[in-house]
């Protein structure tokens, strides 16, 4: 396989998978009438769609069949994700469970945890939140103050997480907490992860409403929340290593490039083939940047699929991709001035502008990620 063919991600059975997902999306939208959304992986929650998608075999692709999944590779999930996001499909309900929780369970979870949770994820019926960020520990997760204290038969959790996407609807949250005292010389040591049921006594979920009036973020407070030993994810004290691996999946996926895809594609379709040289150049530059970033993202996906360390390049995808997403909004706004009848694209543009400031914050601010990239390249 040539390098170009590898970047196309259409080798083997991937091309047929891509075509089948497109057919499903077209059919499902016609039958159920959902509308494509900007940032659909974060804001567009449709439990029915997630279940239909799972019934069609497009959720839990990387989960082994013994746990209810399909036993396919990470690239299969990449192709499905790319097609869903490219059409703004409402995938938020199952998103975090499928993207992050399933790989973590397969890498670090106990057999009991896998059999309890993975079949529900593959069925699109388990909703999960990620409890990482805090008020004083966003991109600098080593400053996490949430604590888990040993008790008979388990742990007691105290602390607050913020920007918890979908927490008000999620069944569980994967919570990063400190389980041993802070060592200033080793700030990344002493963390563990816990699977916390969000209907547990002591859990309080408070909404964070965005500028457009939508509620998908939350502040989640844990006050003397009891967590059993069976809900420790991985090994006590290995939380930092586990979170770092998990962030590779979060930072490198096509969602770091395609959050504004429906706006970009809609504007280009509205422009049509008869454009002047200046407009053609602007469109070419926009798509050229998108294609280059996609190639980098696919290359990272192949590394992850092969079990290779891709933390540095994943951070690079997130930095470059989310900056492109932000810049694409105003580039599309300029191009839209040449469209005689923009139709609903004005509303899509307005939504994209409201969401744009978030692109470079979530998953680690770009400024901090540049430090990760520099260290990965050996720069001090």
Automatic annotation (TrEMBL):
Top EC category: oxidoreductase
InterPro entries in the record: Acyl-CoA_DH_CS, Acyl-CoA_Oxase/DH_mid-dom, Acyl-CoA_Oxase/DH_mid-dom_sf, AcylCo_DH-like_C, AcylCoA_DH/ox_N, AcylCoA_DH/ox_N_sf, AcylCoA_DH/oxidase_NM_dom_sf, Mycobact_Acyl-CoA_DH
Family, per entry: Belongs to the acyl-CoA dehydrogenase family.
PANTHER family linked: ACYL-COA DEHYDROGENASE (PTHR43292), ACYL-COA DEHYDROGENASE FADE34 (PTHR43292:SF4)
PROSITE patterns the record matches: ACYL_COA_DH_1 (PS00072)
Enzyme Commission designation: 1.3.8.7
Cofactor or coenzyme needed: FAD
Keywords: FAD, Flavoprotein, Oxidoreductase
GO cellular component terms listed in the entry, alphabetical order: plasma membrane
Name the record gives this protein: Acyl-CoA dehydrogenase
Acyl-CoA oxidase/dehydrogenase middle domain sequence ranges: 129-223
GO MF terms, alphabetically ordered: flavin adenine dinucleotide binding; medium-chain fatty acyl-CoA dehydrogenase activity
Domain of life: Bacteria
Gene3D superfamilies: Acyl-CoA dehydrogenase/oxidase, N-terminal domain, Butyryl-CoA Dehydrogenase, subunit A, domain 2, Butyryl-CoA Dehydrogenase, subunit A, domain 3
Domain Acyl-CoA dehydrogenase/oxidase N-terminal: 15-124
């Amino acid at each position: 396989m040539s390098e170009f063919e590898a970047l196309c991600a259409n080798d083997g059975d991937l091309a047929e998978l891509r075509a089948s997902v497109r057919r499903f999306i077209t059919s499902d939208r016609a039958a159920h009438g959902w509308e494509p959304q900007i940032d659909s992986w974060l804001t567009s929650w449709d439990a029915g769609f997630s279940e239909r998608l799972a019934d069609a075999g497009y959720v839990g692709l990387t989960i082994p069949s013994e746990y209810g999944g399909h036993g396919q590779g990470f690239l299969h999930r990449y192709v499905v994700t790319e097609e869903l996001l490219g059409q703004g499909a409402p995938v938020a309900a199952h998103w975090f469970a499928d993207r992050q929780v399933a790989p973590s369970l397969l890498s670090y979870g106990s057999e009991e945890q896998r059999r309890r949770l993975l079949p529900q994820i593959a069925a699109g019926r388990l909703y999960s939140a990620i409890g990482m960020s805090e008020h004083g520990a966003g991109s600098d997760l080593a400053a996490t103050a949430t604590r888990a204290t040993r008790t008979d038969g388990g742990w007691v959790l105290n602390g607050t997480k913020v920007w918890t996407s979908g927490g008000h609807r999620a069944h569980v949250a994967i919570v990063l907490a400190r389980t041993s005292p802070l060592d200033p010389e080793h700030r990344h040591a002493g963390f563990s992860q816990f699977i916390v049921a969000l209907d547990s006594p002591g859990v309080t979920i408070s909404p964070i409403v965005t500028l457009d009036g939508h509620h998908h973020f939350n502040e989640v407070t844990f006050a003397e929340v009891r967590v059993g030993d069976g809900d420790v994810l991985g090994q006590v004290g290995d939380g930092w290593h586990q979170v770092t691996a998990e962030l590779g999946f979060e930072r490198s996926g096509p969602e770091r490039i395609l959050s504004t895809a429906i706006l970009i594609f809609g504007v280009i379709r509205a422009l049509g083939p008869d454009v002047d040289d200046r407009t053609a150049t602007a469109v070419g530059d926009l798509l050229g940047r998108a294609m280059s970033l996609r190639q980098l993202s696919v290359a990272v996906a192949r590394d992850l699929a092969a079990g290779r360390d891709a933390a540095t390049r994943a951070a690079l995808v997130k930095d470059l991709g989310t900056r492109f997403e932000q810049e694409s909004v105003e580039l599309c706004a300029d191009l839209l001035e040449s469209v005689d009848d923009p139709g609903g694209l004005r509303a899509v543009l307005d939504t994209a502008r409201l969401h744009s400031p978030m692109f470079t914050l979530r998953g680690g601010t770009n400024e901090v990620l540049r430090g990760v990239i520099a260290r990965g390249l050996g720069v001090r």
